[in-house]
Amino acid sequence: MSQQAGYSPSFKRPAEILRMRKKRAHSEGVSSGGRGAISNPCGGASISAVRPFSPGPLFGQGRSGGGVKRRNPFASIENTFSSPAKKKVFIYTDDDDADSSDSVKPGGSAGVEGEKSPTRTLPFSERLLQAEELSKDVPSKKPTSLSEDDSLFEDEDLFQEERTPKLESPQAGAVTSIAAPACVEYPADWSLKTRLLFTSLLPFSWAVQPRATDEAQGLTQHCRGQYTTIPQSIQDPRTSAELRCGFQQCLRFWQHPSLSWLSLFPRIGADGSFTGKNVPWAQDMALQQSLMSEWSVSLSSLYSLLKARLCPYFYVCSYQFTALFRASGLAGNSNITALLTPTTRGLREAMKSDGIEFTLPLLEERRKSKEQGSTAHNQETDGEEEETQSEASDKEDDGGFSWLTEMGVQDKIKKPDNISIKLHKERNSVCLDHKPESVVCVSGTHTFTLINFLINCKSLVAGAGSQAGLPPTLLAPTAFRGATLHSLKARSVNVKTQVRAGYQDVCSLEVTGPIMPHSLHALTRMLRPAQRGGFSTVSHTHEPTAVLNTHTTTREQAEQAVELDGCGLHPSTIQQLQEPSTLGRSPLRQLHLNNYSYTWKS
């Protein structure tokens, strides 16, 4: 190495480097052809077209400027020419029986670029067989007849054999990926939707501008509770009469009261939509009583249908809260259930005074989670604390001011009145007002008492404002007394979205109105074969109703099944609504169908 031209093992100062550069320029010339090869420092034949000490073009290839990239004067032996033991590899040649000296260049340096020798890579199956044979003899020894890249595969094969039992064939030992199970159904969403937006690469031309016969057939099927079988694969949706009639059928719903110049959903926080509209009942008490009398008859009719399992569920939408009544057998409950949200302390106190028993599901879940997380020691400590608290509460029956008497200053301190003391004790109950945690659940025969409570409750109807004197809105999937048949609005629009360097046509279908759980399932059931198993859905939820997905099922109730064949819904929709709610407080925000498999986001 000391005889190599230009090698400087010691540090050179800048002045000496400049002198060396000038000296080398005179001796070697500026032509790139002056250096076609360098000598091998380890002896033997010269290696042509190799890179010098510093990174740059290969010697013998030249550059456009005519000069040669200089070497690194600060290079050392360690970072230029590694020891042969570190870089020594063996390469297969075309002739497997040839001598190993013919297949390896002199010096055995694989780190030098530019070496090109005929090589051959073994197939993966042969490497597995060879690894298996070698592991039988010396499992810990690496084979030395593979190239450097092949040794990486060999290490993985040996590591895999040590972890897993021996297999009869290498194909059987290959790791296979397990595909996730396809979700052919999604959980029921009991919240009310105001808008659905479906997007797909296929057009929705079959869903808009219906023919008169298709609309009449869909209306008849809805009123009679009949459903036609939709083919699983539809070649041309525009010519499918079953698809067009079924789409018109799933858009229908029933509502009371019905005023053509007013939109009666949503009611919570919708005072702006009523402002400036004609409300002749606002100052007419006789008209208000007539509206309320008709509303009471409709509500009683709905509950009778619900009790007979001829109506699966219905909603009561007032300006303060929303109530959901579900028939027995839905959401895993064996009894009729009712959920009210949001509630206030005054409403809950009024329900208690009428003998209505209810629970607060979210507060109970929070309490149960705390109890399950506590240990036995903490439970004993809590028991002692409860005894202490009970004793303290007994002492506070007089208002908690007995200590003033003991100090002799009871006449100098003004005591708060009983109303302030009561409000202080009930501050936790007041904090729940108008929050999702205030949702109450009524079950069994108490739901009938709740119906009577709603009919006779004076605060159910607004006494002032734009909604004054207007009864709550009743929404149901089936007909009831005094109801009016309404239809959701559907509109199809084709847009272009940018995809990478170009644009792609995306078709959209927008559905607006009070969208109930059965409508969402009916629409997805129609779009599944029509869009050939691929579409996306974005839903806009009426936020006060999002908490209606709260789990209210006990284990004993979930084991009992109730038949709901006569409620007028499709059997697959009934099966979905019978499952216990799993969404919790969150509604469905996005729903995607890809290759006939559902994924969703809440």
Instruction: Report the sheet-strand fraction.
Output: 5-15%
The radius of gyration is 41 Å
**Tally of helical runs:** 19
Give start-end ranges of low-pLDDT stretches.
Answer: 30-66, 81-120, 138-180, 392-397
What is the CA-CA span between the terminal residues? 71 Å
Quick one: biggest sheet? 7 strands, antiparallel
Helix content: 25-40%
List the helices and strands and how they pair.
Blueprint: H1 14-28, E1 37-38, E2 47-48, H2 84-87, H3 100-103, H4 124-137, H5 148-163, E3 193-200, H6 212-224, H7 241-250, E4 252-256, H8 271-274, H9 285-307, E5 313-317, E6 322-326, E7 337-341, H10 345-353, H11 361-373, H12 376-395, H13 402-407, H14 418-425, H15 427-430, E8 440-443, H16 446-456, E9 473-476, E10 484-487, E11 489-499, E12 502-515, H17 517-530, E13 534-541, H18 555-558, H19 571-578, E14 590-594, E15 597-601
Antiparallel strand pairs: 1-2, 3-12, 3-13, 4-9, 4-10, 5-6, 5-9, 6-7, 7-8, 11-12, 13-14, 14-15
3D architecture notes:
This protein is of the alpha+beta class. About 21% of the residues have low confidence. The protein is extended and about 115 Å long. Strands 8-7-6-5-9-4-10 form a 7-stranded antiparallel β-sheet. The two termini are 71 Å apart.
Supply database-style keywords.
602 residues, alpha+beta, 6-stranded antiparallel β-sheet, 33% helix, extended
Brief summary:
This protein is α+β, with helices and mostly antiparallel strands and 602 residues long.
